[in-house]
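Re: the 302-residue chain
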Amino acid sequence: MDYEFFLKLFLGGLTRGSIYALIALGYTMVYGIIELINFAHGEIYMIGAFTALIISTVLTMLGFPALAVTLIAAAAAVFYACCYGYTMEKIAYKPLRKAPRLSALISAIGMSLFLQNYILLAQTSDFLPFPSLIPDFEFWEPYAHIMSAPELAIITTTVIVMIGLTFLIKFTQIGKAMRATSQDKTMAMLLGVNVNRVISLTFIIGSGTAAIGGMLIASHIGQINFYMGFIAGIKAFVAAVLGGIGSIPGAVLGSLVLGWTESFFTGYISSDYEDVFAFLFLVLILIFRPSGILGRTETQKV
């Protein structure tokens, strides 16, 4: 029984970490390209969940089959979130690229507050029920008491996204352009790289992964509200810093470590202080590894 309890906590932490990873990727990709902390990224995650709710509700009323509802709602959530990410970069961040970093940071916080209140006014301040878009898989029934089908779908989707993103960055032209822009934007421009397009695409990709995470966790938990992106965004930012901000493998590792830390602390000690323990763990890691687990210490050029 103790072994089964441990396994449940391990898989629960893996599920949490997978959701954090889908959000943390956006933080770390944007920071890796333009060294900006996009604090409005959590709200993109929230917008993806609300979009999926609206689309799935309409399609269900029209009599669409469950699989079609899930796929179309996911596609709509990703597309809508990507549009928001692209627009946000053009309006809030692009004009401030040459401004002091504090200006961009204030703009990011302003966008976060704006999107929160926009959804609050457009929808409601109450929690809304979210339908279960992920069905129970027959082949998984013998293991459902340890890990549910939605949790399996979350972990599987995260693995697929990670593999796709790794392939994109390492083996495609746009991936090479991203790496070049990350290393030296001026030199990349001299070599013919469209830096503006690369930055916009980075925001689009990060927004898409966040929207997937928003839809998956909403379907798993069964409810959403306008504030859900703030807490998730903070946790994902902590995970990105923990793993090494700017490092994609670091974002994934930091997310998994944070998810397992919260899960085991909740299971064996208390759920009342899981956030306190998570941030305390971050502080301890950064004392010994200031750049994060997989982060690299940058040398200052003088």
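The chain has eleven helices and two strands.
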